[in-house]
């Protein structure tokens, strides 16, 4: 498997706080790779670096061999990197279908005049986007909710819709920020199947930050344990969970 994402000696400081400290890791095409670590370890900051919300103080970031640092946040999405957020970010007063169509935004190839005139090209594009979104709705069993407003939906369903919005963009790399947080045991189990299927059926590479070690062990090929912004351990879930440095660092946090 080739490397899809490479982080090389990345460092990011907020004032005097070193949030990410000379961190290197890579994610192979087709794998599920999880980042774990106690609160404040730097997990979200790593995601924000990859999404290009932050510039690193030093280091290199590459996606499929291309320099990510030469691109803006929008351009990163165009490369095929999609993400979900720890605090779900959806349009509350729009339907599930409308939110998923927003996920298709990067594929729009028509201009505003064409859209106002609703030319045949616009109509064909629209049909293509709808078909892609309907596939995601079927895949995630969202049919009962497709015309419902986000605001009225239970938290667990909103979480699946957010996953759907990211999938609708047709990514090569999916960044999941705490996919199981706030979910019940059953919903977490469903999330595990979705992630498995996303990798196996859709061939999408997944990088996730997650506290639930049951989910991490269940779906991940490899795990990176972070502490104070630096790599503590990397390996299979079993290797990382039994690593003495990890046990020592997490002792009493209830994470491992
Ligand atoms: N925008 C910011 N400004 C200043 N400091 C920040 C900012 N974002 C993060 N930090 C600091 O950087 C460090 C890493 O934070 P980060 O949010 O990446 O950790 P995390 O591992 O994602 O934690 P959690 O599990 O609580 O989400 C922490 O010390 C945090 O206080």
UniProtKB/TrEMBL annotation:
<dbReference type="Pfam" id="PF00005">
    <property type="entry name" value="ABC_tran"/>
</dbReference>
<dbReference type="InterPro" id="IPR032823">
    <property type="entry name" value="BCA_ABC_TP_C"/>
</dbReference>
<dbReference type="InterPro" id="IPR051120">
    <property type="entry name" value="ABC_AA/LPS_Transport"/>
</dbReference>
<protein>
    <submittedName>
        <fullName>Sulfate/thiosulfate import ATP-binding protein CysA</fullName>
        <ecNumber>3.6.3.25</ecNumber>
    </submittedName>
</protein>
<dbReference type="GO" id="GO:0016887">
    <property type="term" value="F:ATP hydrolysis activity"/>
</dbReference>
<dbReference type="Pfam" id="PF12399">
    <property type="entry name" value="BCA_ABC_TP_C"/>
</dbReference>
<keyword id="KW-0547">Nucleotide-binding</keyword>
<dbReference type="GO" id="GO:0005886">
    <property type="term" value="C:plasma membrane"/>
</dbReference>
<dbReference type="InterPro" id="IPR003593">
    <property type="entry name" value="AAA+_ATPase"/>
</dbReference>
<dbReference type="InterPro" id="IPR027417">
    <property type="entry name" value="P-loop_NTPase"/>
</dbReference>
<keyword id="KW-0378">Hydrolase</keyword>
<dbReference type="InterPro" id="IPR003439">
    <property type="entry name" value="ABC_transporter-like_ATP-bd"/>
</dbReference>
<dbReference type="GO" id="GO:0005524">
    <property type="term" value="F:ATP binding"/>
</dbReference>
<keyword id="KW-0067">ATP-binding</keyword>
<keyword id="KW-0813">Transport</keyword>
<feature type="domain" description="ABC transporter">
    <location>
        <begin position="5"/>
        <end position="253"/>
    </location>
</feature>
